[in-house]
Write a structure and sequence with these properties.
The complex is a heterodimer of chains A (about 300) and B (about 800). With about 300 residues, chain A is of the alpha/beta class. Chain A folds into 2 domains: about 200 residues, 3-Layer(aba) Sandwich (Rossmann fold); about 80 residues, Alpha-Beta Plaits (2-Layer Sandwich), CATH 3.30.70. Chain A contains 11 helices and 14 strands. In chain A, the strands form 3 sheets. Chain A has a 6-stranded mixed β-sheet, sandwiched between helices. Chain A has a 4-stranded antiparallel β-sheet with strand order 2-1-4-5, covered by helices on one side. The longest helix of chain A is centred in the middle third of the chain and has 18 residues. Chain B is α+β, with helices and mostly antiparallel strands and about 800 residues long. Chain B folds into 6 domains: about 240 residues, no CATH class; about 90 residues, no CATH class; about 110 residues, no CATH class; about 110 residues, no CATH class; about 110 residues, no CATH class; about 80 residues, no CATH class. Chain B is built from 25 helices and 22 strands. In chain B, a hairpin with a 4-residue loop joins strand 5 and strand 6. In chain B, helix 3 runs parallel beside helix 6, helix 5 runs antiparallel to helix 9 and helix 10 packs antiparallel against helix 11. The radius of gyration of chain B is 33 Å and the shape is globular. The chains are: A alpha/beta (about 300), B alpha+beta (about 800). At the A-B interface, helix 2 and helix 3 of A face helix 1 and helix 4 of B.
């Protein structure tokens, strides 16, 4: 289990993570979402042992990660930008990893090399961004990690490869119980892949829930009535997060089970009151607006 | 979903395991091409030149064998390569992507560091070892029969070991810096600084002490830093023996380097991955480095720019600190920070840098805990060792490095122990630390004093001032000084090959028979010991009458303790020499007369012209010497018209052809300047005996004028000393004029240039009072101010003044 206790990371005067306390169960695919600069990559680097916490602890199964090679041999970190080691090819990197990661699987490597369309002897400098990411994924999976940390995992991958990678990751979880942590802005992708999401904002986890559970916590209602009641009338009945009205039609996002919200709003004698599924992206925007993150300023 | 229990234990990880060596091999593979290039480069600069030299070099006996060490190249590579290598090997810490790559791997920082550090050792050691082994084999073949293989190999391998230690020491300290730096520029600049800073700081402090206050602190500071060690060892490696102290210092630095590895590991643990690729990261260390850069720049500006511009050295130093301190700081800030984004934050550190730069001169100004004004008590002085430098006095010494050959030097080492000598030196020292003295006319002459005290040594170095001359003359006449400064005291009849007598103009008189050498030596030594301080520099009362040229046997000489052993154990500290015979050397002159030699009867036959020149910079300084350049002999074959352009810069001269005046000039002239107001004269003769010949001599300006005053052949111009007084008086009161040197002949062109007298009249200056008629006349004819308003003087005055 991944745990952080009062985890704080400060870069000079910038507070990247602020007393973050959370835990992530093993065997899950955990999506870490958040606005730019929320601290997602910092969290992953702390978990990978790249950064040392300024305060607090980050642990796996109760042990600190930083400067713990035995623990780190069970995890693999793929950063948002892949390091292009001078003169290296996938094969030469495989040689390095095989000597460093005790669980390195040559057969897995051979198998993955066959599945991805990249010549293993090609120099990294001759590879595109997407190819380098594929190489990192191949090498990462060949290390047979218990914990796979992916920062913007699918960035640069073409749709076919994305599907392939998702399948491989899913298989890994099933076969080996791998825990996958993905930090991404591509919420659509996470929605399809993750069991659990955590929303990071201002260096803290705003919430962390199973995706299915999360979708049950929010209701998006399409409501029509003649005349349309004002916002206050809705707020008296449900915990309104956002309210957009146009003529006699309104779109309301509120906390709570969609059926319950739908039921409560029927008291306003609607012509139409119907709950529609809320995407992760909408949940994200809604939550961020709730904490004062004004997307009207950035979304045109 | 399965939960995996991880069995991890940080402390149980083995450091030296397969993983470490595999990483090290990987690192070497990664830098293989670079290492191959370095090896090839080393072969090109060490092996090939040795091969070439050995083909040219054909020693005939063991003493001639000189082993080739290529020390210059090992020194050069030792300064540069380890620093760059550390920056290359730890460059992953200076790149955000690579730091993610390496620090997320399941490898401890200790292992990461050591794998790269050991790879660096292999990178450095293998190429120089390979090159040295090739050189050893080549030299074993080349010197087969002259020197044993064991001797060649043991020296060259020991030399190699020292170079390896020095290279690895620089590398270790560079690694220490690399694991604390955020970028490659920081790594390289700070590594260079850390490897040389202590030597540099002490050197700057010592130089400032010497330049500002004449305090010569003679402590060896080369051993204070790896770069200092490299420079020191490079300079001594010709000796083919490695001194014990060098071995001790190398061992100390090897131990420090080992400690440096642990410090590096500690610092690497403190390295934050987020520092990678940060430019302009402010830390105590980076500020210290910038401060050092400011300190260095202030010194460089002081020495190279301000010191030549400003008259006052303390003022130059202060300006150097005010300008150079911030400049050096900002230079490093700009390079390591890619700009000046932190300028505002750094203002207080810049102020601190200036303060530190000012510390040295201010510390010394306030007597620096007494080091500036300290003079040991007489009773504490056990002995005094003097080093006396004279600008162009040339003594032949036997060459320590190449026994059997000789070289020249312009300084003397004298050890004094008599009470009076000690008192004189103390008095000279006391005068030297007093301010406001006139050093004009004595440039190039200096005195270094080393006092041996009961438990220590104290070193100081000063220039001579004109006012010190009486004391210096007294010192020069002390018996122990004479015995050590005159070459004849080190000669014995057995080592002399020939002694020749010449007249004053260098005309050969005769050669002394070998059986008379002892008699002659005794007479000369007696005369030299009888010379009085009053007569020492008074060439009018005690003129030069001739020379004795002493030539040693070209025999096998071996170095001994402080001198050279010749043949059956005789010692000698000087080589060939030419001794000036003066009229007061009655014992010598009587002896020579008894042998039919009278050098005082100057050979005047054939002298047809004496040409008088204005003095140039070479002629402006008094030489505190009682011997002349033994190499002067042989010049007499040349015609002065041919040698003049190279011998003398100016083309303005006056020829004197009146026989009486020429005779008087020859009688009064000396072979070297006796004051700062001498004119050089060229005495040209054409005779059956000597053919065309020319001798350069000097004559006091006043004596020259007294001889030629009634003739119209020569115009008297103000000499440098006289002109310099006007120059100094007016320059102090009026700074609008800059100075310039007139080209040949222009200093008599008063139609274009303002004369001294005209300038004084136009500016209502009272420069005429107390002047002789000749001087007043000369003031009318000596150019002073150019049409564009510059002080304009002939070359000699510039030299005299500065």
């Amino acid at each position: 289990m991944i745990q952080s206790e009062n985890l704080t990371k400060r870069f000079n005067n910038t507070l990247a993570l602020d007393s973050l306390t959370t835990s992530i169960e093993d065997g899950k695919i955990y999506g870490l979402v958040g606005s730019n600069g929320a601290g997602k990559s910092t969290f992953l680097r702390l978990l990978a042992g790249v950064y040392r916490p300024t305060e607090g602890r980050i642990m796996i199964n109760g042990e600190d990660v930083y400067e713990n090679p035995a623990l780190k041999s069970e995890l693999f970190f793929i950063p948002d930008e892949i390091y292009q080691m001078p003169g290296a090819s996938m094969d030469s990197l495989a040689k390095i990893y095989s000597s460093i990661y005790p669980n390195w699987s040559a057969s897995r490597y051979a198998e993955l090399v066959k599945r991805f369309p990249i010549p293993p002897e090609r120099k990294l400098s001759a590879c595109s961004k997407g190819m380098r990411r594929q190489i990192a994924i191949i090498l990462g999976l060949s290390c047979m990690p218990k914990y796979l940390l992916l920062d913007e995992a699918f960035d640069g991958l073409d749709p076919v490869i994305r599907v392939a990678v998702r399948k491989i990751i899913a298989d890994d979880i099933l076969d080996r119980g791998t825990t996958v942590l993905i930090a991404s802005h591509n919420l659509r992708e996470l929605e399809d892949l993750c069991d659990q999401v955590g929303l990071l904002h201002g260096g803290k986890i705003l919430f962390q829930k199973e995706l299915a559970e999360l979708q049950q916590d929010f209701a998006k209602i399409q409501f029509a009535a003649k005349p349309l009641p004002d916002k206050a009338a809705f707020e008296q009945l449900v915990d309104v997060i956002s309210f957009h009205a146009s003529g006699n039609v309104a779109e309301i996002v509120a906390h709570g089970n969609p059926h319950e919200v739908e039921h409560k709003l029927s008291a306003l004698n609607p012509l139409l009151c119907e709950s529609v599924p809320l995407t992760l992206e909408e949940i994200f925007i809604t939550e961020m607006e709730a904490v004062g993150y004004d997307y009207n300023n950035v979304i045109f | 979903m399965t939960t995996t229990t991880l069995s991890s234990n940080k402390s149980s990880e083995k450091l030296f395991d397969r993983k470490l060596f595999s990483m090290m091999a990987g690192c070497l593979r990664q830098n293989g091409i670079l290492m191959a290039m370095y090896t090839v480069g080393l072969v090109l600069i060490t092996v090939l030149p040795t091969f070439y030299d050995l083909r040219q070099y054909t020693p005939t006996n063991t003493q001639d064998v000189e082993l080739f060490t290529s020390s210059f190249f090992y020194a050069a590579t030792g300064i540069i390569v380890p620093v760059l290598l550390a920056a290359i090997l730890f460059h992953y810490l200076h790149n955000r992507l690579s730091v993610d790559f390496y620090h997320s791997m399941p490898v401890s920082r200790n292992k990461l560091f050591l794998s790269r550090y050991f790879a660096g050792i292999v990178f450095l050691v293998v190429p120089i070892t390979v090159c040295r082994l090739i050189c050893i084999v080549m030299q074993c073949f080349a010197f087969n029969g002259l020197m044993s293989v064991v001797k060649i190999a043991s020296y060259l391998l020991m030399d190699l070991l020292i170079w390896i230690i020095l290279h690895l020491t620089v590398f270790t300290f560079s690694c220490m810096i690399a694991v604390t730096s955020s970028n490659a520029a920081e790594s390289i600049i700070y590594s260079i600084a850390i490897n040389g800073c202590l030597t540099g700081i002490v050197y700057i402090f010592f130089s400032l002490a010497n330049m500002l206050y004449g305090v010569e602190l003679n402590m060896s500071f080369s051993f204070l830093s790896p770069y200092g060690m490299i420079s020191c060892y490079q300079s001594m490696s010709y000796a083919q023996t490695i001194p014990n102290y060098m071995m001790i210092w190398c061992s100390i630095w090897a131990l420090l380097a080992i400690a440096g590895v642990f410090v590096s590991l500690h610092l690497y643990h403190r390295f934050h991955s987020e520092w990678a690729q940060q430019w302009g990261r402010q830390s105590a260390f980076s500020q210290l480095m910038k401060l050092l850069a400011g300190f260095l720049t202030s010194f460089i500006l002081f020495v190279s720019l301000f010191n030549p511009i400003f008259e006052d050295q303390v003022q130059s130093c202060l300006i150097g600190a005010l300008v150079g301190g911030p400049l050096g700081f900002l230079l490093v800030e700009g390079i390591t920070g890619k700009g000046f984004g932190n300028l505002g934050k750094n203002l207080k550190y810049i102020a601190l840098t200036v303060l530190v730069c000012l510390t040295c001169p201010v510390f010394l100004f306030f007597n620096g805990f007494g080091i500036v004004s300290r003079i040991p008590d007489l009773q504490d002085i056990e002995k005094i060792e003097l080093t006396i430098r004279s600008q162009d006095a040339t003594y032949e010494i036997l060459d320590w490095n190449n026994p059997g050959t000789s070289s020249t030097r312009n300084y003397l080492y004298i050890t004094l122990s008599s009470e009076r000598s000690k008192e004189i030196v103390r008095e000279l020292h006391q005068r030297a630390i007093e301010e406001g003295k006139d050093y004009s006319g004595l440039r190039g002459n200096s005195l270094s004093i080393c006092y041996t005290l009961p438990h220590s040594e104290m070193n100081r170095g000063y220039s001579f001032a004109l006012s010190d001359l009486p004391l210096i003359q007294e010192l020069f006449c002390q018996p122990e000084f004479v015995e050590q400064s005159q070459a004849v005291f080190s000669y014995t009849p057995q080592i002399l090959q020939s002694v020749s007598c010449y007249d004053k103009l260098g005309t050969y008189c005769d050669e002394i028979d070998a059986e008379k050498y002892q008699q002659l030596l005794t007479a000369v030594q007696t005369d030299l010991l009888n010379l009085t301080p009053e007569l020492l520099n008074d060439y009018e009362k005690d003129p030069v009458v001739g020379y004795l040229e002493w030539v040693l046997k070209p025999t096998v000489i071996t170095p001994g303790e402080g001198s050279f052993i010749i043949e059956n154990g005789d010692q000698v500290t000087f080589g060939n020499s030419a001794l000036v015979i003066r009229s007061s050397y009655q014992n010598t002159l009587s002896l020579l007369k008894s042998w039919g030699m009278q050098p005082q009867n100057t050979y005047l036959d054939g002298i047809h012209t004496v040409s008088v020149f204005m003095p140039d910079s070479y002629d402006m300084n008094i030489n505190l010497r009682s011997t002349i350049d033994y190499r002067s002999f042989g010049l007499g074959e040349k015609n002065y018209r041919d040698i003049m352009p190279s011998e003398h810069g100016d083309t303005v001269f006056w020829d004197i052809t009146d026989p009486q005046q020429m005779e008087a000039l020859v009688a009064a002239c000396t072979p070297f300047p006796t004051s700062s107001s001498c004119n050089p004269i060229y005495i040209q003769s054409d005779s059956e005996k000597n053919g065309n010949s020319c001798r350069k001599m000097y004559i006091e300006n006043s004596v020259l004028l007294s001889i030629v005053k009634d003739s119209q052949e020569i115009s008297y111009l103000l000499n440098a000393e006289e002109l310099d007084q006007f120059f100094k008086i007016h320059k102090k009161s009026d700074s609008e004029y800059s100075t310039g040197t007139l080209s040949s002949g222009d200093f008599v062109d008063t139609s274009t240039y303002l004369s001294v007298a005209e300038f004084a009249r136009q500016n209502n200056l009272d420069w005429f009072t107390g002047k002789t008629p000749e001087q007043l006349d000369a003031m009318e004819r000596t150019a002073f101010i150019s049409p564009d308003g510059q002080y304009s003087t002939y070359d000699g005055v510039e030299s005299y003044h500065w």
